[in-house]
């Protein structure tokens, strides 16, 4: 129960609902127990009439009628109270589920990129859905059934003991046995259903991956192999389901058997006591009803124990993530007014999961409003420079200054607010094009959206779609071409109108003519804004105020287009190669 203590703050938050729920549960059980008492006394009245103790039949009739009315009244009240019991306790569990999901989601948002590299998306999703669900089973049903069982048990045993102590002891003998058996069954059921769940998620991951990569599967003619793999997985899944069905099938027969056993004891021991005149016929009747009433709550003890154990394991997994403190912390409490000057002084950085040193002693200075182009072979560390400016990672050594201040002293929210970032792989949400562009500026007008799309040279494509800006993009934006996605992603950064713009090779899928137009627009739009353009093309770099060439994480050349084409090296070679390619084209 150590891990589940995390939920105490939520129970405290909803304490009134919980307390009212507990009171309602207790009262409803008291009303429920009226019924056996009333039925018992009705039987006794009839028996007394038969034995001649009561001679007037109208007395019997009146007594029975009153008892019937009481029984109906008690049933109605119990029904109403049961409704409110669920409305309070089960509602609280839903509120806790909601709060816990939000807490986990917010924690996920706070955690740094390294966390996401170490943990699989499926695992993250599982903890916020499956694990929260099993914790909810503890916060709601388990607590409700526990209160139910305790109340019913205490009151019923009290009533029973008062009327026939020996018979009570005999009657409850099978109940602990029942509880232990149900506990053992529940454990096995739980184990098997966890395996079934794992197979279900394997099946869905397999299906999702297959259909995401359907183009590759079809072009390699791998449909049959894929179907065989699916069949293999589905067969294993079916076998696991059947294992679960088999053990589930034991549950009810086992309960019926043990209820039957208790009933037999009541009839046999109770019968003997009736013959010897120790108890009345009504008591035997009451006991049979009590036994049937108690069986289910006692069975739930085993079930509840297994729920609590599962919830404890799930909360443990949730706590593991909640306890992690984000590597990137916002140390600044005051706001920072970002002007856009960026300085790298001997910056080195190693990705700790791969141990790859992506940057070695990198130094450059950009005044606010200047443009820097970063050129270099693939894997040379270009994107890493942009990641460090956005403080997705903290540097290992050297200094990274923003407006002359170390980056970790700058207010992180203001820094990220001042950055417009266009990543290498344009990521678009499954939403309308309009909303995807507005993601950069929630309150943008439609006119501003259109303007941004025009600057990114994608407006004409968008109005070509039948629903225009309201076109909903499929998962991962599959309805757009690579170049269109890149341009929508550029429009998203432009509309934000930030002080720092970071373009990570975002024109690679755009033809040179469109690239030229976009670059011309960007030149006007980014005037006065610090801009870093990562590219493999000279055309994107030539107008920059500064150009650096990276090789294996080191700056090997730096200068302007004019100076670099005069110096032997990577830039000049690339320039000459691309010049001859375009003149051959
Ligand atoms: N998230 C990461 N985790 C671990 N290693 C990484 C990560 N991102 C990049 N690297 C490694 O760091 C090095 C520099 O990568 P980076 O993405 O900065 O290069 P790049 O110049 O932008 O390459 P490209 O032109 O192919 O995009 C590479 O060797 C790469 O394998």
UniProtKB/TrEMBL annotation:
GO cellular component: plasma membrane
Domain ABC transmembrane type-1 positions: 19-310
InterPro entries attached to this UniProt entry: AAA+_ATPase, ABC1_TM_dom, ABC1_TM_sf, ABC_transporter-like_ATP-bd, ABC_transporter-like_CS, P-loop_NTPase, Type_1_exporter
Membrane topology category: Multi-pass membrane protein
Key words, A-Z: ATP-binding, Cell membrane, Membrane, Nucleotide-binding, Transmembrane, Transmembrane helix, Transport
Cellular location(s): Cell membrane
Spans traversing the lipid bilayer: 16-34, 64-84, 142-161, 167-185, 250-275, 287-308
GO molecular function terms attached to this record: ABC-type oligopeptide transporter activity; ATP binding; ATP hydrolysis activity
Matches recorded under Pfam families: ABC_membrane, ABC_tran
Domain ABC transporter: 342-577
Listed SMART domains: AAA (SM00382)
Recorded superkingdom: Bacteria
PANTHER family associated with the record: ATP-BINDING CASSETTE SUB-FAMILY B MEMBER 10, MITOCHONDRIAL, ATP-DEPENDENT PERMEASE MDL1, MITOCHONDRIAL
Protein name (record): ATP-binding cassette, subfamily B
Species of origin: Bizionia echini
């Amino acid at each position: 129960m150590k891990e589940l203590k995390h939920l105490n703050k939520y129970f405290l938050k909803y304490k009134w609902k919980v307390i009212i729920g507990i009171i309602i549960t207790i009262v409803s059980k008291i009303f429920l127990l009226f019924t056996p008492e009333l039925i018992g006394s009705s039987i006794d009245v009839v028996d007394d009439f038969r034995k001649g103790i009561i001679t007037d039949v109208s007395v019997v009739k009146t007594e029975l009628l009153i008892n019937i009315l009481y029984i109906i009244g008690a049933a109605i009240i119990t029904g109403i109270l049961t409704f409110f019991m669920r409305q309070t306790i089960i509602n609280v569990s839903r509120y806790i589920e909601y709060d816990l999901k939000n807490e986990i989601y917010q924690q996920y948002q706070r955690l740094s990129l390294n966390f996401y590299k170490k943990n699989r998306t499926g695992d993250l999703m599982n903890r916020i859905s499956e694990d929260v669900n099993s914790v909810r089973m503890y916060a709601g049903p388990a607590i409700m059934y526990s209160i139910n069982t305790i109340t019913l048990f205490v009151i019923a045993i009290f009533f029973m003991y008062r009327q026939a102590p020996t018979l009570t002891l005999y009657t409850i003998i099978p109940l602990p046995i029942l509880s232990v058996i149900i506990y053992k069954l529940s454990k096995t059921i739980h184990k098997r259903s966890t395996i079934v769940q794992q197979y279900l998620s394997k099946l869905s991951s397999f299906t999702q991956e297959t259909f995401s990569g359907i183009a590759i599967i079809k072009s390699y003619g791998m449909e049959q192999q894929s179907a065989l793999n699916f069949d293999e997985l589905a067969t294993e899944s079916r076998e696991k389901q059947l294992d679960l069905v088999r053990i589930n099938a034991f549950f009810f027969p086992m309960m019926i058997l043990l209820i039957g056993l208790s009933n037999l004891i009541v009839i046999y021991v109770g019968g003997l006591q009736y013959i010897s005149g120790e108890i009345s016929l009504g008591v035997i009747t009451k006991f049979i009803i009590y036994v049937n009433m108690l069986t289910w709550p006692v069975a739930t003890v085993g079930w509840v124990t297994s729920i609590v154990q599962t919830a404890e394991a799930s909360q443990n997994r949730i706590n593991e993530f909640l306890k992690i403190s984000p590597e990137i912390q916002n140390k600044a409490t005051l706001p920072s007014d970002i002007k856009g000057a960026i300085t790298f002084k001997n910056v080195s950085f190693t990705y700790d999961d791969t141990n790859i040193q992506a940057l070695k002693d990198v130094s450059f200075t950009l005044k606010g409003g200047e443009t820097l182009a970063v050129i270099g072979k693939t894997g040379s560390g270009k994107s890493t420079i942009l990641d460090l400016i956005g403080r997705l990672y903290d540097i290992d050594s050297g200094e990274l200054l923003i407006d002359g201040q170390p980056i970790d002293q700058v207010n992180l929210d203001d820094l990220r607010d001042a950055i417009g970032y266009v990543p290498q792989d344009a990521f678009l949400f499954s939403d309308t094009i309009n909303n995807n562009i507005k993601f950069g500026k929630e309150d943008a007008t439609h006119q501003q959206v259109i303007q941004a799309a025009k600057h990114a040279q994608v407006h004409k494509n968008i109005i070509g779609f039948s629903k225009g800006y309201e076109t909903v993009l499929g998962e991962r934006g599959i309805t757009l071409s690579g170049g269109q996605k890149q341009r929508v992603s550029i429009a998203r950064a432009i509309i934000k109108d930030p002080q720092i713009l970071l373009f990570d090779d975002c024109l690679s899928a755009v033809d040179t003519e469109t690239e030229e137009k976009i670059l011309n627009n960007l030149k006007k739009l980014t005037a006065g804004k610090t801009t870093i353009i990562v590219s493999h093309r000279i055309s994107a770099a030539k107008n920059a105020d500064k150009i650096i060439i990276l090789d294996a994480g080191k700056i090997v050349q730096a200068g302007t287009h004019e100076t670099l084409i005069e110096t032997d090296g990577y830039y000049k070679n690339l320039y000459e190669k691309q010049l001859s390619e375009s003149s051959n084209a």
